[in-house]
Write a structure and sequence with these properties.
By secondary structure, chain A is an all-alpha fold. Helices cover about 70% and strands about 0% of the residues of chain A. The chains are: A mainly alpha, B alpha+beta.
């Protein structure tokens, strides 16, 4: 073998089998984006449970020639493609996450004050306003619905709906949803103060009534029946959510409930995060649509917050027993972050006013409301 | 804290606007602003049976396929029906979004020259407001409303009947030659649908959650009555069957426990006060004299414990 042949071989190996010469500028940009999200998750603790795997997924998939999101010659999915195909594309992981969320949720505050369900409905205003807004920017109806649901502030619902309606926007929608959920304490307070007077922020609410164990056990059954009768399309999400909650409340399957809340939830979170992150390859992500999605996601969250607070104002107008409008912002879901924000804002106005449990009602109603909105959209396109 | 939050909010908005603009400028298709690839283009597949041609396709804004049937009612025989790429017939006066099931070319043979033929297009995908628009490239304004008759049939099927004259306005080949070529498609109002469905579905969520609310209020009422009755029968002795919060009231609380709870409350309040003070916000204590007095006593007690010079004297 001559030196020339050795040199040719080395060059050939370098250009075809290593990543460096194949690295494009947009991939480099996306690696920077991945590092930014990892920084936000690790240093700033922004939704780290999701943003760490999502960020690392973005990081992995943007290296050139990496066999992660493609198919082999024989049609076998590569590693992360397999997670995505069987977990996300088959719509399994978001539903399993809902199972875990159900097992973690105490519906006590919502059962004690069912009126707060209406706040959860009002807080879906942004979902529909954004849906119309993005249509003006050339999005299709299905894409618009998947972008609108970001304001519901419910990650698994966003992922579930986007997978069904606009899978090509999955990465951008999921990232926008989780990023803004993490930024709820920054986004909501100025809007809350703008929408309320100091006197309204000081409104004290009557202590919630005690809820019996029997009520808590029967709630998931009643809620499942009513919701699925009215919106059958939401059965996969709501069914799993309420099943998880039933396991928690019935008290006889503690092991199953514990697994749903912890081990199972953690396992699927890893696969979900990696899969979603891996959909953000530079050639797919760096297009105008994801950029618009980020802009509209913020708008969506703001309108949903306004919708929730406005609903409380309207309810107060017709009701003798006033509610503190600060709990309206918790209707955007983002459990329990937005309820905590309501509580913190309430404490600023009156240090003895404990709103946390009152805000948990609309917060949980927001989860049901956003799932119902997703069901409405799914039914619309069937 | 308020100012910090407002600043952070502004920074967040600025950051994402910047990302959006930079991203758009750097990677967006500036020439085709708000114009994206047509990813929902319907791809009809045709089947023919007993003179009826059936197109099966996934229309725009749908996830499932629908069937559209074509037949000639009188005045000729159906020769073929095929799909037309909307890009080839797109004109400024029409919006592709209004044509959810795209456009078709329908060719009728054996029509008597200068005579009319009737084309029936029926599907359960059509609504009462669906119209049929025809395209004739020989006209100055190629797209025209055919004013098709829209009839309700059994099983939620709507039928549109278009009357076409050989060599007439709707005949795209323009010649009275016994062959009629009708190019066009069913048209629905995209924005009417989008806005209509917006209101219906938003209020649909209110209805769903209102029904759930009523169910919960009703079941809550029943359960409370049930628990109350049970309590009355058992003479208030069955603690285990009572709501959780009631159990707390019944449980005996020792003086030590009261003291621990008081200290915990005090520490919590102290923490809130300290946080507010650290944020530079002026705070007004609303704890009252009893809290101030309690706090003073606790601090004095702590002094005794931690003051190593005086500790043994007390």
């Amino acid at each position: 073998m001559s030196w020339q042949q050795v040199l040719d071989l080395i060059i050939s190996i370098f250009t075809t089998q290593t990543g460096l010469p194949n690295l494009a500028l947009n991939q480099l940009f996306m690696l920077g984006v991945a590092l930014l999200f990892l920084y936000l998750a690790v240093a700033k603790k922004f939704e780290p449970l999701l943003l760490v795997p999502i960020g690392f997924g973005i990081f992995l998939v943007n290296f050139p020639l990496a066999p992660l999101m493609g198919y082999t010659e024989h049609g076998t999915p590569e590693l992360i493609r397999a997670f995505y195909k069987y977990g996300v594309e088959w719509e399994i992981i978001p539903c399993v996450i809902f199972l875990g969320l159900g097992a973690m949720t105490d519906f006590g505050p919502l059962i004690a004050n069912p009126k707060t369900l209406i706040i959860g409905a009002g807080a879906q205003l942004g979902v529909f306003v954004t849906y119309i807004g993005v249509l003006f920017f050339g999005f299709t109806l299905k894409e618009a619905a998947s972008v609108g649901i970001i304001g519901g502030a419910d990650g698994p619902t966003t992922i579930y709906l986007t997978t069904k309606l606009a899978p090509h926007l999955l990465g951008a929608n999921a990232l926008a949803a989780y990023s803004y959920m993490a930024m709820v304490p920054l986004i909501q307070p100025p809007i809350m103060r703008m929408m309320t007077t100091p006197a309204q922020r000081r409104i004290r609410m009557r202590q919630l009534r005690p809820v019996s164990v029997r009520e808590k056990i029967l709630f998931p059954l009643i809620a499942t029946a009513l919701i699925i009768f009215l919106v059958p399309a939401v059965a996969p999400l709501m069914g799993m959510f309420m099943f998880g909650n039933f396991m928690r409340e019935c008290g006889v399957v503690k092991r199953l409930s514990d697994t749903s809340q912890n081990a199972l939830m953690n396992i699927v979170t890893i696969f979900l995060g990696l899969s979603v992150g891996a959909t953000m390859a530079a050639d797919k992500f760096l297009t105008p649509k994801p950029m618009l999605i980020f802009a509209f996601g913020l708008f969506d969250f703001a309108i949903c917050t306004i919708g929730g607070i406005l609903t409380v104002h309207i309810m107060n107008y017709f009701s003798k027993e006033k509610m503190n409008p600060l709990i309206g912002s918790a209707g955007v879901s983002a459990v329990p972050m937005s309820a905590r924000v309501s509580h913190a804002e309430g404490l600023k106005a009156d240090p003895d006013n404990w709103l946390l449990m009152h805000a948990m009602g609309p917060n949980l109603a927001g989860v049901i409301g956003s799932a119902a909105a997703a069901g409405m959209f799914i039914a619309m396109f069937q | 804290m308020n100012q910090n939050n407002t600043k952070n909010f502004r920074k967040t908005i600025q950051f994402f606007l910047l990302v959006t603009i930079v991203g758009w400028a750097g990677f967006g298709n500036a020439a085709g602003l708000f114009t994206f690839e047509d990813i929902e283009k319907p791809k009809p597949e045709f089947a023919r049976s007993n003179g009826v041609v059936t197109a099966r396709l996934v229309p725009r804004a749908k996830s499932s396929s629908v069937e559209i049937h074509f037949r000639v009612t009188d005045g000729g025989e159906m020769e073929l029906v095929k799909g037309v790429d909307f890009a080839t017939v797109d004109r400024p006066e029409v919006d592709v979004k209004n044509f959810k099931s795209a456009a078709f070319e329908i060719r009728i043979k054996g029509a008597a020259q200068d005579r009319e033929a009737g084309v029936s297009i029926f599907s359960d995908f059509f609504t009462a407001s669906t119209a049929f628009y025809a395209f004739n490239p020989n006209l100055e304004k190629p797209w025209i409303d055919t004013h098709a008759t829209n009839l309700a049939q059994q099983g939620r099927v709507r039928e549109m009947i278009v009357t076409v004259k050989d060599g007439g306005t709707l005949d795209a080949d323009g010649a009275a030659d016994g062959v009629i070529t009708l190019i066009g498609g069913p048209r629905d109002s995209f924005w009417g649908y989008a806005l209509g469905t917006l209101f219906i579905r938003f209020f649909g969520i209110f209805i769903v959650l209102s029904v759930l609310m009523m169910g919960m209020i009703l079941s809550g009422f029943v359960f409370r009555r049930f628990d109350q009755n049970k309590k009355d029968i058992s003479g208030d002795s069955d603690v285990n069957n009572r709501p959780e919060n009631d159990r707390l009231e019944v449980a005996a609380v020792s003086e030590n426990e009261v003291a621990v709870i008081a200290v915990a409350l005090h520490m919590q309040m102290k923490h809130s006060y300290a946080s507010s003070a650290a944020d530079g916000k002026e705070t007004t204590s609303t704890y009252g004299l009893w809290a101030a007095e309690g706090r003073k006593r606790i601090m004095n007690d702590r002094l005794i414990v931690f003051n190593r010079f005086n500790r043994y004297d007390n």
